[in-house]
Amino acid sequence: MKRFLLTLLAVATVATMGAQTVCRAAHEKVAASAPQADGLEWMRHCSDDVTSVGGVGTGGGTTIGVATRFSKEFLADYAGKEISLVAICLYSPLQDVEITVKKGDNIATANEVATENAASLGAGWNYVQLSEPVAIDGTEAISIAYEALDTGDMPYGFDGDRLSSADTGMSYLKMGYGSYEDISGNASYRVFGNAMIMALVGGDMAELENRMVMDDIRNVDAYVLENSNIEARCYMTNNSFNEISSATLTYAVNGTEKNEEIAFAEPVAPHTQASCTVNIPAAAEDMTITFKISKINGQDNALVNVMKKELTVYGEDDVVDRTILIEKFTGAGCVACPSAETNIEQVTEGLKDRIVRVNYYTYSQDDPLWDNNCQQIAKFFGMSYAPACMLDRSIQEERIDWEQYDGIIWHPSYMTTEMLQKEIDKPALVTLNVEGIYDESTKNMTVTVKGKGNINLAGKRLTILLTQDGYVGYQSGAGTTEDNENYVHNYFPIVYFTSYNGNTLRPASDGTYEMSLRKRIPDTYATTDAKVDLSKCKVVAFIGDWDEKKTSPILNAASADVQIGKSVDSQSAEAAVKAYYAGDGKIAFTAPCEDVEVYDMAGVRLENRNLSSGVYIVRFTCGATAHVQKVAID
Questions:
Q1: What gap in Å lies between CA 625 and CA 574, rounded to an integer?
Q2: 259: which of 30, 175, 301, 583 lies 20 to 30 Å off by Cα?
Q3: pLDDT at 56
Q4: Which has the closest alpha carbon to 286: 231, 218, 222, 219?
Q5: Which residue, among 16, 386, 382, 404, has the nearest Cα to 178 in the 3D structure?
């Protein structure tokens, strides 16, 4: 499912609440049925069509509240009825959600009349039964709200039906400890539409029983060795208000369905996530695998959604050695970052020839090594703190339950040598050869990366950057005052040759590719007056995806020292130099040359002066290139 931070799009809709930024994900279908059922009566401002849901979020780390409000006038037609259940539609799962119902015309001062807590809500519609129904008397407004920590996956659901400034008092947003803000009153928020929250006020709730939604499929790599086994970890949420003791997981490999019967060790409580492992044999050809929960408690699942995995199958002869990429989010003001760096240095000892490092300084814009490219990477992956790290931008099972980042981003103190070796041992299916040549005369660096993919590389992205070691400057938490003032910072980017999310590869039909880019290298880097020292720099390159699911695993990485010499353009100019007769009996050149020797056709060497008519052999060098040319004088 696609997710877009609209700050990156031409049609961006971005709004600020306090110091935070709220972004909306593009509309995308969530494959689950809408909640409407025969005989049920819903009270709502929003669309009930789950396919209209769009996600809103800050990128992670902030508690957000979403509310819908029903005015006294709206409730007049429902007077005498009761709200027995609340339905909430999400773009992506949320954990530890608090749901409240309030009475009062002002949402900020309304009285709380009901509170429920859900351990987990899944993508699509979720149904939360109220412990005690809330009576509707039509004399005061009723608001329904939910709050939870932003996971970074744009979880909060809105219907995308743009509001006008006249659509007041219906949908609200709250950031952190702030107050609820009417969406219609903010021109940037109106594009979100109404919050996807509904209240059940009539009908038999039994029609909403037996609902379980697939949340995620993990431990399924995009590339799998032919005839091997796949152990898929399937995560699902009970979206109904009954316990679920058993389920039928139906998976299909290239269209052929099989059922896996699941008996949960303990009944799955409402709004709680469960998981299971399914063993699937790999085929000898590329695979499309779909997963769905078809039955729960022996009855048809009323909320079937389908998750799909596309797998490329490779043979043992396709495998090449892997170099892994460690990316760390850090900052000079981060007191815990030095100890995190120490741990990484310790666990990478002995493996550094198979590891590429990049440190992103994203802790504060006041950081002397802060860089906007690094900030965009942090924003994409939902980072709002330091230290944190990624290993090949792939899910690490050891850290899969850590905080809200599902094993992709985690604290560097948890990194181990065993974890790194496990990643190094994974097969790589693409080679990278990196060369960076710096031209001292032009201050340009030309970087060429080429290789071959044993899989289809079309659409994959190649990222190329220049990193440097050895900046001595302030670092909080390094030790004594002197230690803090003289900390050595390493692996920080100073130049991006590609965009921060890479340039698209266009491989040849045989899988080979080549990309050559040139950039002028600045004298100093970032916001400091520190000089760029090419002897401490490395050209870093890696290939992977950049998808909106934020699971963008790196296929392989490489690095190389900088060569001081002539750039490709300079070499081309040297190779293209020509000798010609300039008049006055002398031979001249189209570029400065050295070691000039002139011979007549009999092989006699002559002075380059007072030459008469005839044909001459001229030997000369331009830069590192030697030339032999004929020149005719009429």
A1: 6
A2: 30
A3: 86
A4: 222
A5: 16
Is the pLDDT assigned to residue 378 strictly greater than 50? yes
User: Token match 């509310």: residue?
Assistant: 67
Look at 269 and 259; give whichever has higher pLDDT. 259
Q: Check if the beta carbon of residue 568 is closer than 8 Å to that of residue 334.
A: no
pLDDT of amino acid 499:
93
Strands 355-361 and 324-330: parallel
Give, in degrees to the nearest 5, the angle at Cα 277 between 272 and 281.
150
- Locus of tokens 């209240």: 199
Backbone φ, ψ for residue 63 (5° rounding): -80, 130
Q: Pairing state of beta strands 503-504 and 461-468?
A: antiparallel
Q: With a cut of 90, say whether residue 476 has pLDDT above it.
A: yes
Q: What is the CA radius of gyration of the chain?
A: 32
Instruction: Single out the residue of 154, 152, 129, 209 nearest to residue 24, CA to CA.
Output: 154
CA angle 555, 324, 354 (to 5 degrees): 130
Q: Which residues pair with 54 in a beta bridge?
A: 158
Place of tokens 């760390």: 328
| Residues facing 202 on adjacent strands | 41
Hey, CA dihedral for 403, 409, 177, 334, is it positive or negative?
A: positive
**Separation CA 485–CA 165 (nearest Å):** 53
490-496: average pLDDT:
96
**Predicted pLDDT at 569:** 54
At residue 169, the pLDDT reads 93
Nearest to 591 by CA among 621, 561, 615: 621
Q: Out of 58-62, 452-456, 604-608, pick the least confident.
A: 58-62
What is the C-alpha separation between 101 and 477, in angstroms, rounded? 45
Residue in 581, 580, 583, 584 with CA at minimum distance from that of residue 627: 580
Strand (E) or helix (H) holding 380: helix 372-380
- The residues pairing with 100 across neighbouring beta strands, listed in sequence order, are 115, 145
Q: Are strands 111-121 and 94-103 parallel, antiparallel or unpaired?
A: antiparallel
Cα distances from 40 to residues 101, 140, 201, 238, 239, in angstroms, run 20, 24, 8, 20, 17
Rounded distance between C-alpha atoms, residue 381 and residue 549, angstroms: 9
Nearest alpha-carbon partner for 198 in 50, 23, 32, 38 = 50
Dist CA 151 CA 408 (whole Å): 12
